Fold this sequence. Notes:
The structure holds two protein chains of two kinds. By secondary structure, chain A is mostly helical.
Amino acid sequence: MSGDYLQNYAPLLIHLLVAMGLAGIILLLSTIVGYHRPTRAKLQPYECGVRPTGDAREPFSVKFYLVAMVFILFDVEAIFLYPWAYIYRDLHWFGFVEMLLYILILLAGYIYLWKKGALDWNR
Amino acid sequence: MFAPIEDLYRLAPELVLCTFGILVMLAEPFVPRKRSGLVAFLALLGAGAALAATRLSWAHPGTAFYGLVRVDDFSIFLHFVVGAVAVLVILGSRDYLEREGLHRGEFYALVLFATAGMGVMVSAQELVTAFIGLEISSISSYILASFRRNVPKSNESAMKYFLLGSFATSFFLYGVALVYGATGTTLLSRMDSASGNPTLLRLGLGMIFIGLAFKVASAPFQLWTPDVYEGAPTPVTALLSSGPKAAAFALLLRIFDTVFAASQLWVWAIWVSAALTMFAGNLAALVQSNVKRMLAYSSIAHAGYILVAFAARNEIGTAAVLFYLVAYALMKLGAFTMVTHLGGEGERRLEINDYAGLGSQQPAAAAFLTLYLFSLLGLPVTAGFLGKFYIFNAALKSHLVWLAVLLAINTVISAYYYLRVIVVMYMREPQKEWAATPIPRAVGLVLVLTAAGTLYLGLFPNYLMEFATQSAVLPR
């Protein structure tokens, strides 16, 4: 492998080293220099000021996963609308029709989910 | 700005497959359970329409979408292969799904989507497009492998396939990244002329080879195959062993032949992999007692035979690969369809010893299975024989004498486990009485088609071989 080629990546490597070094130094300094007076309250897991109740590691209903999955799917797909909206004027009718097709495919997925009862919480 | 209508013609098979896939998904919740045959029919129509669309796009050769995909004889040949595989799998799976109480439209939709992905793979002219095709087909197959949701083995199969498959895909993607880093382009056609770092390019091609070697189940990346093939529903196994394998080999040929000079460095790796794959498949198949596992190992061995032709690295070799892919798909689909039918409810009858006495109890089933096994072994008058002959020829033309010798040795080894099944079927007394269920019409059609194809290619290979030779000319 030629040396010239990899030299392009030298700044990236330096950046990585500096970032890791800085994080390491900060963590190290705060452990060495800082005061340590642990109390019961301080050692509790942080939960927005509310007293924690029970363990977080318990089985959830599988419905949560389904909803989360559907949410992520549609959320990610909605992101594609942004670049389209940005160059909407340039694309004109072509872009409009393309987006229409895209939304139609999403709609097909939505109808499928609905009819299958994935949105029905009490099922 | 508008995509030329020509471009849409060139993508017609994929468009048709995706449209029908979505239609099947939409129809599934609306069609009442009793009329579920309608969904299967719609899917069959879609796969048939994809074949027609392939014929249509044949009339419009050239690249489309700024060189991302390319329609030439090579891609058309393989489109026909994967399309025909989809038709046969859909035909053969209806009765199975009804029997197992799994009949859902999603099954067919996933088969159609997987086929669309394979279509993208075989016509891709650019590495990221190829990757997307690979992912579409792989992700659909992962879900298909887990289709028997209540059977732990099926879940195990899907999990193993998913984890190892994603691992292999990441190899492929990393290879693509390295190739891009070396040449500054992901378009295959520009890669040879690009002045770049040759070491990085070769490294990238090596990674791509690893990724695709996993998909075709060649050693030393074949370990997932038996578990996945055994656990998956048998029609899915039939699909996995024929369609994705053909598509992955097509991609391998396309990439390695377009970037010919740089990939010459990896000929030794192909050589080693071919030799290892043949032995790994055949030696392990000797000791299997489960028919599905035995056929899985035999499919590894066949990947090795195809790699021998690939190692020849010339047009005769490419034509031999294409011919063998067709022959292999026919006999493997036939064999797995027969195993599907004989398995009975819950796939309980899968041991080789369960087939004892089949020759006298169900002579038709035994005769079909015997034909497929003869073809897999490579006896004359079957497609498998001529396929092996062409591979042999290609290997000798490229002076790969040792590889040809190893191929011959492996054929002899494989005779033991193929013939054992036949011996058990015809010469052993049945241990248990099995209620002989009649072969359903759709399954019968698949069997007749694959058997006829196997015999036809064994007797009159010229037409297909001419097509394959014509398709083997890839642009450099």
